């Protein structure tokens, strides 16, 4: 069966229109939406172990994970440490001074520290590695109505471009699990996308617009 020139032209117009439709559910549109969210972030970040700098901790204290993170940042050259004395938090009473450690930003750490770079739940300062880049959208669910919005979940792969040497240190990755994931070769993740009059938006960008 022969296909007329007019029919081919009509199909071509429909194809071009669909490809250029920002509201269409497509891998390309979802990739653009996720990348727009990534571009709003300072990179793959790790939060400081304390909101105040410098900060002191009791040697052998109970918050071992906090000390492990601080020591990893010391190895990374972003913090320094020195022995000192701190008020006891144990059985000796608050007026008893016991051995402790003080952690401070190094000159390099002071240059690299980023305000409010911690997790979405704890906006303490921190350090950020490289920039997130979407590699590909693997697949996505058919858009469906939920909570008064048309939503789709996309599975994708990403990478962190040009990470500094400290982000690759085994000790850093051991105490910062998300950093360890980010430093893998094209790790996978998922995102919820929201259909709007502007096209598809990452759910966190959508909420950031006051929705």
Kindly describe this structure:
With 211 residues, this protein is α+β, with helices and mostly antiparallel strands. The chain has 2 domains: 24-44 and 129-208, no CATH class; 49-112, no CATH class. The chain contains 7 helices and 10 strands. Strands 6, 7, 8, 9 and 10 form a 5-stranded antiparallel beta sheet that branches. The longest helix has 15 residues, at 5-19.
Comma- or semicolon-separated keywords:
211 residues, 2 domains, five-stranded antiparallel sheet, three-stranded antiparallel sheet, elongated
Précis, in short:
It is built from seven helices and ten strands. With 211 residues, the protein is α+β, with helices and mostly antiparallel strands. Strands 6, 7, 8, 9 and 10 form a five-stranded antiparallel β-sheet that branches. A three-stranded antiparallel β-sheet has the order 2-4-3. A two-stranded antiparallel ribbon has the order 1-5.
Write the layout of secondary structure elements.
Elements: H1 5-19, H2 27-39, E1 44-47, E2 55-58, H3 64-75, E3 79-87, E4 97-105, H4 107-112, E5 126-129, E6 131-140, E7 144-146, E8 149-161, H5 170-175, H6 177-182, E9 188-196, E10 199-202, H7 203-208
Antiparallel strand pairs: 1-5, 2-4, 3-4, 6-8, 7-8, 8-9, 9-10
């Amino acid at each position: 069966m022969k296909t007329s020139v007019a029919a081919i032209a009509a199909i071509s117009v429909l194809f071009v229109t669909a490809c250029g439709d920002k509201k269409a559910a497509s891998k390309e549109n979802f990739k653009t939406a996720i990348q727009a969210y990534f571009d709003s972030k300072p990179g793959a970040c790790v939060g400081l172990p304390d909101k105040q700098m410098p900060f002191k901790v009791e040697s052998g204290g109970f918050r071992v994970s906090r000390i492990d993170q601080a020591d990893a940042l010391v190895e990374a050259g972003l913090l320094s440490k020195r022995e000192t004395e701190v008020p006891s938090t144990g059985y000796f009473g608050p007026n008893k001074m016991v051995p402790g450690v003080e952690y401070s930003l190094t000159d390099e750490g002071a240059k690299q520290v980023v305000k409010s770079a911690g997790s979405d739940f704890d906006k303490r300062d921190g350090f950020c590695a490289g920039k997130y880049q979407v590699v590909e959208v693997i697949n996505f669910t058919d858009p469906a109505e939920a909570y008064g919005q048309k939503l789709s979940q996309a599975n994708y792969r990403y990478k962190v471009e040009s990470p500094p040497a400290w982000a690759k240190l085994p000790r850093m990755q051991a105490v910062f699990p998300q950093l360890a994931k980010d430093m893998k070769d094209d790790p996978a993740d998922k995102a919820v996308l929201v259909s709007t009059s502007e096209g598809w938006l990452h759910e966190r960008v959508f909420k950031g617009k006051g929705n």
